[in-house]
Design a protein that fits this description.
With 280 residues, the chain is of the alpha+beta class. The protein has one domain: 3-Layer(aba) Sandwich (Glutaredoxin). Helices cover 51% and strands 11% of the residues. A 5-stranded mixed β-sheet has the order 2-4-3-6-7, sandwiched between helices. Strands 1-5 form a two-stranded antiparallel sheet. A two-stranded antiparallel sheet has the order 8-9. A hairpin with a 2-residue loop joins strand 6 and strand 7. Helix 5 runs antiparallel to helix 6 and helix 5 packs across helix 9. The longest helix has 42 residues.
């Protein structure tokens, strides 16, 4: 007979008791994993918020980092169409670039932004008009490279939904795209508020752009027609090598967008562009 490993004075638990212990251990393990997941989500939100504060306060970080979890929410993916429809007035592979300005302009100003990025809003508020004037004067053409990484970092779908809506605006015309782009930044919610994830809110903001809200625009925004295109645009940003927003380059040369605790002035920004392009 094999010798029992049971120590004197101890009693082996019954099968029923073992099952209860096992179930309790599974519950405890699930609770532990959920707690760790919550802590990870909190660290992501806090980390992005700290970068924002540093950027607006003139700290070492002047852009929102594009690092983050690359997984999209399953419910959002299930609700979106899968067929790629490329809006008119776009260029590049799969139409992932939107260009504003004269096509024959000798120099190119590249703007990399995310619609949920508060530092991008700060840049647009300070120098959006300067960018537009440079393009309207023919000094540069402006290429917009748009991102959606804040959806991944903060959760939600505001960046991608706004990006799909901007595709619908581009389809209506480049001028409509630029005006709607400016309206979105002027009405940007706090970065943890996913208001841009609501297509009805985006349609309300479209009322601020005369002539934009055509039947075709409303249908495209409501049906998320350009959601697959928006994913292509976001993926192109991820592959661009740009690691944060806003980033602005002239003919590939990066510009300084902030000095001290504030954005550079329109005069300083324009001077930088002209110097980088050899126009000054």
């Amino acid at each position: 007979m094999a010798q029992s490993d049971q120590k004197p004075g101890t009693k082996q638990p019954s099968r029923k008791q073992s099952q209860k212990i096992s179930a309790r251990e599974r519950i405890q393990e699930a609770q532990r994993q959920e707690k760790q997941s919550a802590q990870r989500r909190q660290r992501i939100v806090v980390g992005v918020s700290i970068v924002v504060v540093l950027a607006l306060a003139g700290g070492t970080a002047l852009a929102i980092s594009a690092a983050g979890d690359d997984k999209s929410s399953a419910d959002t993916a299930a609700a979106e169409p899968t067929a790629l429809v490329v809006p008119a007035n776009t260029s590049g592979p799969d139409g992932t670039v939107i260009t504003y300005g004269k096509a024959d302009a000798a120099h190119t100003l590249q703007v990399f932004e995310d619609f949920r990025c508060p530092v991008c809003k700060g840049f647009e508020a300070a120098n959006g008009e300067a960018v537009k004037k440079l393009a309207d004067d023919g000094a540069v053409k402006v290429e917009y490279h748009l991102a959606a990484f804040l959806d991944k970092n903060l959760g939600g779908k505001g960046s991608r939904t706004a990006l799909a809506a901007i595709g619908a605006a581009a389809n209506e015309g480049v001028d409509k795209f630029k005006a709607y782009h400016d309206v979105l930044y002027a009405n940007q919610p706090e970065e943890r508020d996913d208001a841009f994830g609501d297509v009805n809110h985006l349609l309300e903001l479209a009322d601020k752009v005369p002539g934009l809200k055509t039947d075709a625009f409303v249908k495209a925004v409501t049906d998320r027609t350009y959601a697959p295109w928006a994913k292509k645009v976001a993926d192109a940003f991820n592959d661009s090598g740009v690691t944060g927003t806003p980033t602005v380059k002239v003919d590939g040369k990066p510009l300084t967008l902030f000095s001290g605790n504030r954005a550079v002035t329109p005069e300083q920004f324009t001077a930088q562009v002209k110097q980088a392009a050899g126009l000054s």
